[in-house]
Each structure stands twice: as structure tokens, then as C-alpha cells.
Design a protein that fits this description.
Layout: H1 2-19, H2 28-52, E1 58-59, E2 63-64, H3 70-86, H4 102-120, H5 130-133, H6 145-163, H7 166-169, H8 174-199, H9 208-238
Antiparallel strand pairs: 1-2
């Protein structure tokens, strides 16, 4: 009888925790929202790249964006920035992110965003003029394994490194928040520069090691950032 009472009490405690939002799977609804945001980001990136093939995109309102594949690398970096930016609600004390399960949420949502990006990028090679610029990474994305591998590693590195900015972006103190945004824009700027050079060049095995290291490092650092960010969100909510 005592055992049954203890089990009932334990069940009541678990139910109470779920009711208070302490369930370990509280981040599932947020993951669904992030999925829709990832689709939006991938669509916007695809529209920008395909527009470059029409001559409607210009730099400084004068020069047309060249169809050499460089714009594909720039678009990926911009999409990574946008996805990270959309993941934060600065009007809420928790920044719109769950304190519990945040590392799992970040990992799954980033992987989903990367996968969707790679799927939508199947249409991007048509924006490259191969007759003029030859066989670049952007042009050979779906026809050359090395080109696809380099592209995938760049997308992974861009999205995971951008997500590390959440450590600062979700802070309640303005200096920390500003550092987070500075880091995000710095990663985006470097990504745009490296991405444009990568996608407008022919596939080269010499670049493979660099992007493997950058992608792996971004993946390894994200759970640490997610854990630290979740702990700080908990402290911020407790202080309210």
C-alpha cells in the first residue's frame, strides 16, 4: 500500500512539473516554430539567388550581380544570420527560448535548417552562367560529389557558428547582448567573404579539410553554448 502511495505521489509530482512547463520536452512546440522559420529562410535565400540570374539584382544600384556563383555563398551566410535572428524574441524575458532542453532544441532546429537549405539549393545552379564562369562549386552543386560536400560543409559551418551568438543575444544586460550581435554580424561577414570565394571557384580537395574542421568545431561548440544559455535564462526568469 505504501509503495502504491509513493508511486501516486511521484506521478502527481511529474504531472505538476509538466503543468508548470518543466517537462523535458517543453521545447517541442518551439522546434515546430523553428521549422517554419527555417522554411521561410530557405525560400528567401532561393529567391535572392534565382533573382541574380535575371539581372534584377544590382550592387550600388549600378552593377548587376555576376552569375559566377559568389552570390550563392553570400546568400547562405545571410540565411544563417536570418535564421539565428528570427530565433530570438527580445521582448520576452526568456528570449522566446525554453530554459530546459535548449541544447537539444538548438541542435535539432539547426540540423533541420541545414537540411532544408541543402534541399532548396538544388535549384541554385541555374543561377550560374557556366558558359562564362565554368565549373564552379555553385554550378556543380548537384552533379559533383566534391562540390556538394564543400557546399554542405559551408552551410553547416555557417548555421552552427551563427547559432553561437545566442549566448550573448539572449542576455538581459545590454553590453552582453551587443557582443552577441557583434559576433553574429562578424560571423556573417566572414562567411560572406569565404562563401563567395568558395562558391565561385572550382571544387578543390585542398579546401575540404578547412571546412571539415570549421563545421565540426561549430557542431561541438553549440551544445556548450546551449547549456550555458539555458542556465542563464533560468536565472533571468528566477530573478523576475
Amino acid at each position: 500500500m505504501g509503495s502504491l502511495n509513493r508511486r501516486a505521489a511521484k506521478s502527481d509530482q511529474q504531472t505538476s512539473k509538466r503543468a508548470k512547463g518543466d517537462s523535458p520536452l517543453i521545447w517541442i512546440p518551439v522546434l515546430r516554430t523553428m521549422f517554419y522559420k527555417a522554411i521561410f529562410v530557405a525560400v528567401m535565400g532561393t529567391i535572392l539567388v534565382l533573382l541574380s540570374a535575371t539581372g534584377l539584382l544590382t550592387t550600388n544600384h549600378i552593377n548587376e550581380v555576376q552569375r559566377d556563383g559568389a552570390w550563392s555563398g553570400i546568400a547562405v551566410a545571410m540565411c544563417a544570420l536570418l535564421f539565428t535572428f528570427l530565433g530570438v524574441d527580445s521582448k520576452r524575458p526568456d528570449s522566446g527560448l525554453p530554459a530546459k532542453g535548449l541544447p537539444q532544441l538548438l541542435m535539432l532546429s539547426t540540423l533541420v535548417a541545414v537540411l532544408l537549405m541543402l534541399i532548396f539549393m538544388i535549384s541554385w545552379p541555374i543561377a550560374v552562367d557556366q558558359n562564362i564562369y565554368g565549373t564552379t562549386v555553385a554550378a556543380w552543386y548537384i552533379s559533383e560529389p566534391l562540390a556538394f560536400g564543400l557546399s554542405a560543409l559551408f552551410v553547416i559551418a555557417s548555421f552552427f557558428w551563427s547559432s553561437l551568438a545566442l549566448l550573448g543575444m539572449t542576455a538581459s544586460k545590454m553590453p552582453s547582448k551587443l557582443l552577441g550581435y557583434v559576433f553574429l554580424f562578424a560571423v556573417t561577414g566572414i562567411g560572406m567573404w569565404l562563401g563567395s570565394r568558395l562558391f565561385m571557384s572550382p571544387p578543390a580537395e585542398a579546401n575540404l579539410a578547412l571546412w571539415i574542421v570549421l563545421a565540426a568545431l561549430g557542431i561541438a561548440l553549440q551544445p556548450i553554448v546551449g547549456f550555458c544559455t539555458g542556465r542563464r535564462i533560468q536565472r533571468q526568469l528566477a530573478s523576475k
